[in-house]
Amino acid sequence: MIREANSLEGLCLLIVDDDPGVREVLVSGLEMKGAEVIEAFDGQEGWERFQDHSESIDAVISDVHMPNMTGIELLNLTKSIKPGTPFMLITGYSNAYMEQLQTQSTNPPDAYLEKPFRFTQLLSKIKEMIEKNIMESA
Known about the structure:
Structural class: alpha/beta
Shape: globular
Number of domains: 1
CATH class: Alpha Beta
Mean pLDDT: 89
CATH architecture: 3-Layer(aba) Sandwich
CATH topology: Rossmann fold
Strand order of the largest sheet: 2-1-3-4-5
Strand content: 15-25%
Number of strands: 5
Number of helices: 5
Low-confidence stretches: none
C-alpha cells in the first residue's frame, strides 16, 4: 500500500516503451519516488519480463505502438495470466484514437495517459490504479 502522498515505495512497476528517452525519464522518476522498476524496450521484451516477474509486478505501464508487439497485445497477454494486474497505456495519440483502439482489446486498460503528460499525472494514475486494485481485492 502507498504510505506517503508522493511515495511509490514498496511497488514494483514494469515500464515498456521503445523510446529510450521516454523510458529513461520514467524509470529514473519512478525510482526516485521509491518504486522498483523493471524496464523493457518493446512489447515482446515486456511480455518476457512480465512472465519472469509476474508475482512481484504490481502494475504495468506501456506505450501503445512498439515493434514486435503492441501495448494492446501486451495488455491482453498480461490480463490473460494475471487479470488483476493494473495496466496503463501511454500514447502520443488522441483520446478518440485510444477509444477506437480499445475496441480491439479483449481487456480495457485500467488507465491511459496521452503524451506529453506531467509526471504528477502519471503518479496520480498509478496511485488510482493500485488503490482500486487493493479495494477490489479486499
